[in-house]
Predict the 3D structure of the following.
Amino acid sequence: MKVITNYRKACEEVAKVFVRKYYPSERDGRYCFWVGDEVGGVFSVGDRFYNVDRMIEALELKATYEQLSDYDDAELDAALKEPPENLKVNFRNYVKYGWINKNEN
């Protein structure tokens, strides 16, 4: 179906722009791939994993690499706690306003 082909092409383009902005050293694509070869699912770059929504959100918000990686680290830390915790701020608000209370995140 053409709509699916177009979606996959768009996802590939988003990933290309995302890598160019946030991981310029990975431009050759050696360490970049779609997990399970599922274009539009989870994209791996280096040792990080992003879904398409996060890539689009980061690009739209013009997030810095530091904001992207700090929030990614905080998400991972929260997920590894027993029991897992939710962050008190979403990525969009973090990029716009920072941590609500840095000691709590």
The chain has two domains: 1-61, 63-105.
